[in-house]
Design goal:
9-stranded mixed β-sheet; 11 strands; about 280 residues
């Protein structure tokens, strides 16, 4: 029997960024799932505060070189990779000079939210999907971690639904305590729109707050995971109302087995279709 393929997409993975509950899961969950017999690929943004020399990142020339058009501007897609030797796994990094060559993740030295975080989110999601296409590696499960991955459920279910690599993919979305109080630009919906995405699909983006971009991710996901014990109350209510398969928060000492079982449950469930 062919191994199930799991694509992990995370906005934080340690040791490349500081330890948080999300970055620890981003580091240890893929390893644990691989050790339980599944094939994995893992992606994260190549933020400028990641030390390339220390972490031995290098560019993958055969995967780089594509341009992604966002808001009528071309942005070169650069793919880098690093290995976590003790885990026998690679991390793919989505890079671009305009969006990621700054020494911070989401806020500047004065704690001001980057005004282009909306476009960075679009670039990251599209960069992951285009790279997976170049790898010709069709995931059975796509597991997204953090708000910077929130476009992936929409893109996979609508813009990429006819691509044979993604047409059968199940999308899981983990929610964490990673709120921000700022909003994206009001034209976020127009910037992210691709063929296959309707105006109706963009309803929450009329006011692109943290809560609303996460609601869209919930709408298009096949299953949901509570990655933190205290996520946003409005989002928790929205999760409950969705009646989608949901894995409750799991303590850090035994979460990998619970996640693995949840993947198996989702793999045999009906795929979410959104008209």
């Amino acid at each position: 029997m062919e191994k199930a393929k799991v694509l992990f997409v995370a906005q934080e993975i340690t040791p490349y960024l500081k330890e948080t509950p999300m970055s620890l899961i981003g580091r240890h969950l893929p390893q644990g799932i691989q050790e339980r017999g599944k094939e994995i690929r893992t992606f994260m943004p190549r933020f400028g505060n990641i030390n390339e020399r220390r972490n031995q990142l290098h560019e993958v020339i055969r995967l780089s070189g594509m341009n992604l058009v966002i808001n009528d501007a071309d942005h070169p897609l650069i793919i880098k990779v690093a290995s976590i030797q003790q885990a026998r796994m690679q991390i793919y990094f989505i890079d671009n000079e305009d969006y990621f060559h700054r020494k911070f993740t989401f806020r500047d030295k004065n704690n001001k939210f980057f005004t282009d975080n909306d476009e960075r989110t679009i670039f990251f999601a599209r960069g992951v999907l285009e790279t997976v296409k170049k790898l010709s590696w069709g995931p059975d499960v796509v597991h997204c971690h953090g708000w910077m991955t929130s476009l992936l459920p929409l893109y996979i279910k609508k813009a990429f639904k006819d691509n044979p690599l993604f047409s059968e993919s199940k999308v899981l979305f983990s929610l964490y305590k990673d709120d921000f109080s700022e909003s994206f630009h009001n034209d976020f919906g127009a910037k992210l729109k691709l063929s296959g995405i309707s105006t109706k699909d963009l309803k929450h983006y009329k006011a692109p707050s943290y809560v609303n971009i996460m609601k869209t991710a919930i709408d298009f996901a096949d299953g949901l995971i509570l990655g933190s014990p205290d996520i946003n109350p409005e989002l928790l209510s929205y999760v409950r109302e969705s009646e989608k398969p949901t894995l409750e928060y799991q303590p850090m000492d035994n979460y990998i087995d619970a996640y693995s079982d949840f993947y198996d449950e989702i793999l045999v469930s009906e795929t979410v279709t959104v008209d």
